[in-house]
Amino acid sequence: MNENTLNSLGYPQIQKNVADCALSYLGKRYARELKPMVDAHLIQIRLEETAEAAALIRFGASIPLPSLDGMETIMDLLGTGYLFSERDFSHLAQFLRSCAQLMKYMEGKSGAAPTVSRYAASMILIEPLLSEIERCIHSGRIQDQASKELTRIRKKMTVNEERMKRKLDSLVSKHRSIMQEHVISQRGGRTVLPIKKEFRKQVKGNVLDESGSGQTVYIEPVELVSLQMELAALQAEESREEMRILGDLTSLAESYNREIALNTETVGVLDFLFAKAKYAATMDGRTVRVNTQGHINLRRARHPFMGSSMVPLDFAIGKTYSSLIITGPNTGGKTVALKTLGLLTLMMQSGLLIPVEEGGEMAVYNEVAVDIGDGQSLEQALSTFSAHIRNMIGILEQANTSTLVLIDEMASGTDPGEGVGLSIAMLEELHSRGATVVATTHFGEIKHFAAATPGFENARMEFDTVSLQPLYRLRIGEAGESYAYSIALKLGMPQRIIERSKSLSDQSISRDRTLVFTSPPLETPTMTPERSVTKADDPVELSRKNQSKHSIALHKKTTTRESDSPAPAKTFRKGDRVYAAYLNQSGIVCDVEDSRGNIGVMLRGRKVKIHKKRLTLHISANELYPGDDYDLDIVLETKENRKKRKLMGRKHVEGLQIELPPEE
User: Fold this and answer.
1) pTM, rounded to two decimals
2) ∠ CA(494), CA(496), CA(502), 5° rounding?
């Protein structure tokens, strides 16, 4: 997956959240290295594993996972010739005991969590090493019975220390009156008596130190010299024997290098697995069915960072349409819907449970390509439009049947007319390559294009027109409005500016350029059972084919404006056949112009509202129909509806209904 996509959708925060739930250094490492996978079968296995672990946690199980304290150093140095200390072996013994405990615990959970239990079953008990460590080391100290030689040395040391203690007691009793304090001191590892300076000559021995004030001297009595030299020799022997014992234990541990490494890795994997399960519990994550046909069907989906504060999202794509155009007001939740879909897809492909209702279905994609945010950069001299175009070029280079494309605010950042044309052309190209596309926009032309083109569908973010508050609910199958005037008025924009804006919008403004689409209707891509990339999906092949199939021409139209009189306004009457250039379709006017300048046009059996500036007269109603009193219902209504209307005109019929075509 592209790093820009991962960063744009907030995937690094998911990695951090999972790592925070891990206990061991390996579990945290695996969480930080978490990446989306593209093998659907492997993804399904990982989801089932996480669901099993989540079920254990949900039912109150307390899994005895080893913490791996101190094991990172041991694994790094094992086999390098490094001599491990008593502390290292204490950590290793604790790890081996915890592994045995975990294996026994998971054996009892094999029925409830068979997949997770198999991980623990793959671990190896290393009883000989554990027994030897426990025999030799206890509480971080080498035991006397670790070897016969060490037992002998420490017995001699004990005898020596007892003799020295008796001798000291005798000396303290003898020199009590001339001692500065009745405390035995140590200087340089040797036992000394603190004698008042003026009485120093009364004690035979070596002066090893004196106090800062010079009032006390520290004397090693001559009676202790031989005993202390003997003790020092015994301590050296003890140290050599301890090093030999630690060396033997290190060699024994190195002989089990493979088994220790296997157990450590397995504990790390289990810790990572239960970290995913713990993170799922924080957001009520569920598993989903995985497919490779591009089908997505989610109920009550939530963004993992928003939790219960987000209005749940119902989303579906991939069955009858593979491109969805979302419209609605600003701050209405369009971008959140895009990011929710994108991040949940990445999480699912990483084997993470996602916050949706049970029974959801998601598609696996080789690439998730996004164009979200304005992308401005002063350092790289990129404008908003330039950044969008760079992103779209990158998306077009990789788009195929296994690509999910998420585009925020199409046609923004440049001239609306040219931006709309460019956006529609890119949507056509992405659709022809079989990509799954979800895009947001405010432009009516793109909404009308989606309504009239097979394989495309409109959706809107719901808006309360009374309270002027977004409802953040996605409704698929309907196009929405931006409610710019209503929102601006509520936020404090003066009424006179709103009224002036409406009057300007209703005026007929001549354009410098007109987009004319001369391409045949789009071919809906065939959804293969496995969304693999074939030669037909190759961008070069498709580009060659599209060049022969589609041509989009920009015709510059020079208009001469007279300073004294404005251009005459377009007027259309019911029954006129009109042409919508940006849709490359003709239709019949079924509703006359409303207060906003929108005209109802019947296109392919669907009523579409199109602004009069976007229409040109193809054939007037006078030329099409005989006489002014011609019944246009013959053209605009179905035969069945005409019969029903005629019957209703004569009498009341219970349950009789007239179904009108959907209005976009």
Assistant:
1) 0.72
2) 110
